Amino acid sequence: MDETKYPGIYENWFGKKKFLFTKSLDGKIFFGEKLIEGYRELDPTRSKLGAAVIKKISSIGLKENNLVLYLGASHGYTASFVSDIVGKRGIVYCVDFSPRVVMQLVFVCEERENMIPILADARKPLSYQNRVTKVDFVYCDVAQREQVDLFLKNVKMFLKPKSYCMLALKARSIDAVKNPRKIYEVVKKELSAELRVLSVVELDPLEKDHCVFLCQYK
After folding, report:
1. pLDDT tens, residue by residue, 39-55
2. How large is the C-alpha radius of gyration of the chain?
3. What phi and psi, each to the nearest 5 degrees, are found at residue 42?
4. If you placed Cys at 1, which of 7, 10, 47, 115 could pair as Cys (CB 3.0 to 4.6 Å)?
5. Burial, 27: exposed, middle or buried (Cβ in 10 Å; 0-12, 13-18, 19+)?
6. Which H/E stretch holds residue 80?
7. Domain extents for the chain?
């Protein structure tokens, strides 16, 4: 495996196609991904974080030992790779509001001591304030109309000053008709009022009508 400029993410070429990997904490797989000599394949068509790397985002803002608040963890696919990146001394607080999804997330978290499942609504950070410490990184992948607002609420409540955060924005959840690029422009202005916007990357065609914003808390 070859190291990339993104801490904890590796790459390998098979023919003319590049594949992404993280070094597995325990040598286990959870989603049918390939495992090659202890490295798990990160599919960029299933992960906005992976797609952002393929699209050459300037940085991912994540590193070993980070404490991470992951909003919209779903079944835990991308969150499990974040778990690999931060390592055994890091923590990933995995928030999702769907009981059905969290039941599946729990099975992954039971195998990973650094992943903590939290059944909660990301729009209401006060409801899990007593279960989450101050963190080094906030990752948000919540396909709701108010996704920008809930992202900023959680950043202000949990993110340490000068630390990084990432919003994986789904344009169609904000407006199903409006041109996604127009939405990205508006969102960038909203984020810039509260954060330093460091990188903006559209994820098409890997993730249609999605855009990732890497920011730093002022």
Report:
1. 999 999 999 999 999 99
2. 16
3. -100, 110
4. 10
5. exposed
6. helix 77-86
7. 2-43, 53-217
Place of tokens 């999605």: 210
β-partners of residue 199 are 214
Average pLDDT in the chain = 96
Contact in structure between 82 and 50 (CB atoms under 8 Å): no
Name the residue with tokens 């080094």: 136
200 SS3 class:
strand
Q: For the whole model, what pTM was predicted?
A: 0.96
Domain 53-217: CATH class, spelled out: alpha beta
User: What does the alpha-carbon distance between residue 41 and residue 24 come to, in Å, rounded to a whole number?
Assistant: 10
Q: Which tens digit of pLDDT belongs to each residue from 112-131?
A: 999 999 999 999 999 999 99
Percent of the chain exceeding pLDDT 70 equals 100
Give the contacts of 179 (CB within 8 A, at least 6 positions apart): none
Which pLDDT score, from 0 to 100, does residue 16 have? 85
At 218 the pLDDT is: 86
* Dihedral class, residue 71 (left if φ above 0, else alpha if ψ from -120 to 50, else beta): beta
